[in-house]
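Exercise 7. Given the encoded structure of a 174-residue chain, write a plausible sequence.
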């Protein structure tokens, strides 16, 4: 049997049960779908390593389990980086956040606010906060003048601050 025929059979036979396994362990169905894609990408890359017969299924579930662990590590890393960005934004502004102190900025809110920025503005903000790059370095990376980077950073911070304040004020009090 050819590799593609074997892969198609594996996918047809095991996609639904592996997806159910992932759905029971993921907060969002989209996360389970992403993980399923990763599982079968790994299966295709390692088609020759997949044991035959009854051992196929446990092998795929092992890949699914490790994929979930990788996704969880990535999520924790993103949350940590968002926390670092929150702190860096506060330091860069040189003042306490203007968000009411009784409302904490959570990682999801910051991630959502960052998502509202253009790709270039998000890159400028995150390179400033996470990599500690200056405007000349960011300009070289993004092919912008340092002055343009400083202007875009100033405007992006203002939009980010407004989005965070708006989200914080619109959330119900706990």
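Solution.
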């Amino acid at each position: 049997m050819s590799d593609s025929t074997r892969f198609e059979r594996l996918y047809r036979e095991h996609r639904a049960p592996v997806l159910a396994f992932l759905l029971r362990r993921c907060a969002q169905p989209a996360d389970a779908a992403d993980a399923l894609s990763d599982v079968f990408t790994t299966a295709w890359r390692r088609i020759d390593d997949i044991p035959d017969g009854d051992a196929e299924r446990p092998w795929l579930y092992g890949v699914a389990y490790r994929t979930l662990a990788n996704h969880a590590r990535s999520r924790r890393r993103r949350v940590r980086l968002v926390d670092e960005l929150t702190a860096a934004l506060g330091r860069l502004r040189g003042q306490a956040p203007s968000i009411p102190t009784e409302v904490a900025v959570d990682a999801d809110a910051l991630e959502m606010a960052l998502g509202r920025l253009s790709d270039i503005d998000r890159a400028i903000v995150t390179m400033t906060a996470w990599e500690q790059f200056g405007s000349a370095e960011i300009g070289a990376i993004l092919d912008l003048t340092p002055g343009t980077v400083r202007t875009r950073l100033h405007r992006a911070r203002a939009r980010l601050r407004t989005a965070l304040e708006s989200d914080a004020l619109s959330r119900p009090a706990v």
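Remark. Helices lie at 3-23, 29-45, 56-93, 107-115, 119-129, 135-142, 146-170. Students should compare their own answers with the one above.
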